[in-house]
Structure formats: structure tokens, C-alpha cells
Design a protein that fits this description.
By secondary structure, the protein is of the alpha/beta class. The protein has eight helices and seven strands.
Length: 206
């Protein structure tokens, strides 16, 4: 058995979930700047996430679900997941974003499991608060080690794919480290770099 862990935003999905949500609030410019700084490692991930979600306060939860269930998948995502499963991989999605989006993608793509944060809502509207298992810059590494232990899969049989600074922590625990259309901070530590927005390009390199 092997394990493949994919980031969600700008990896399995073409774009950032929070940017799509921000369009409904007129806060896209401010949120996009915070996202960029976090993905480049210029801003602590927890701090960035907290600030961005606060800007979504008041957004109707039904609207959130509607947007999250209709996000554009990355080119090659379905084909890549299908092929990796044929090769004996268990497939996980780790997202510093939101389960409202990853749960839907899990069903569409046939992922084995997804871990993400959850937007807090009250009376049908977002409160500006968020919680979950992917809140911090080292969260993905912690979850990866737990999953490896649970499944009995070692570093040699682990593949990780991401694009931003919060994916860097996983690289220490995986033999195959893929930087997908990634920020420079991730490219420096990767052993596979994909510059084209097509996940299937990974298949020829592993």
C-alpha cells in the first residue's frame, strides 16, 4: 500500500476557495493579498487564516455551500486520482481551507479521506470564526504522521503534492515531494516540480 496526499486549493482545485467566497463579500482584493502572503511564507498561516475568515462574516451559509460545491477542479485531477488508485495508492486531501469544499471534492474525485477546517455559522450566516485540524503551519505534517501510523505506510511509500508554504512541513515525511505550480519556498525543497496546470503531468514522474 502507498499513500498520496494532495493539497486542495490551487492543487486539486483550480483556485482558492476563500477567493471565490470573497467575491460575494466584495473583499476579494484584501483576502487574496493575505492568501498570497501566507502561501509564500511571509505571514503565519494561522494568523492569515483567521484574518481572512473574519472578512467573510455575515455571508449566508447556503451561499457558501453553493459556491463550494461548484468549484473548478484542476485539469487532470480526476485522471490522476484514478491512475494512482490503480497503482495501489490510498488518496488523502489535506486542506488549510474548508470542509465545505473538500467533502464535495472527495465524492467527485473518489478520494479516500479529506481533512480540512470548518467555517462556523450561526443562524444561517458565517460568524467570521473557523476551527479544525488544519489551522496551523505544521498541521499537515502532524496529520500525515498520524495517517502513516494508522495505515502502516512509511516515508518511502508516501507522495505529497502541494503549492504553498503550509505544504512544506509534509516534505520531511515523504520520499516523493511534488511542487505543483508552486511558490518558490516549496520548489526549493521539492524533488519533482510541475509548472503546468495539469495534475496528470505527475504520473510520468513517479
Amino acid at each position: 500500500m502507498k499513500l498520496a496526499v494532495f493539497d486542495f486549493d490551487s492543487t486539486l482545485m483550480n483556485g482558492e476557495t476563500i477567493d471565490f467566497l470573497a467575491q460575494s463579500m466584495g473583499a476579494q482584493k484584501e483576502i487574496s493579498k493575505l492568501t498570497k502572503d501566507a502561501m509564500e511564507g511571509k505571514l503565519d498561516f494561522f494568523e492569515s487564516l483567521s484574518k481572512r475568515v473574519k472578512l467573510l462574516k455575515g455571508l449566508e451559509y447556503e451561499k457558501v455551500l453553493q459556491i463550494c460545491q461548484n468549484l473548478p477542479l484542476m485539469k487532470g485531477a480526476k485522471e490522476t486520482i484514478r491512475e494512482l488508485k490503480k497503482r495501489g495508492y490510498k488518496i488523502a486531501c489535506f486542506s488549510g481551507g474548508f470542509s465545505e469544499a473538500t467533502t464535495s471534492a472527495k465524492e467527485i474525485l473518489g478520494l479516500d479521506v479529506d481533512f480540512a477546517n470548518t467555517l462556523h455559522q450561526e443562524d444561517g450566516k458565517l460568524t467570521g470564526l473557523v476551527g479544525g485540524s488544519m489551522m496551523f503551519s505544521d498541521s499537515k505534517a502532524i496529520m500525515l504522521q498520524k495517517l502513516q501510523s494508522l495505515l502502516g505506510i512509511d516515508k518511502e511509500n508516501t507522495l505529497v503534492v502541494g503549492d504553498g508554504a503550509n505544504d512544506l512541513c509534509m516534505f520531511k515525511y515523504a520520499k516523493t515531494k511534488v511542487a505543483f505550480c508552486a511558490k518558490d519556498i516549496l520548489k526549493k525543497e521539492a524533488n519533482i516540480i510541475i509548472q503546468e496546470q495539469d495534475l496528470s503531468k505527475i504520473l510520468a514522474k513517479i
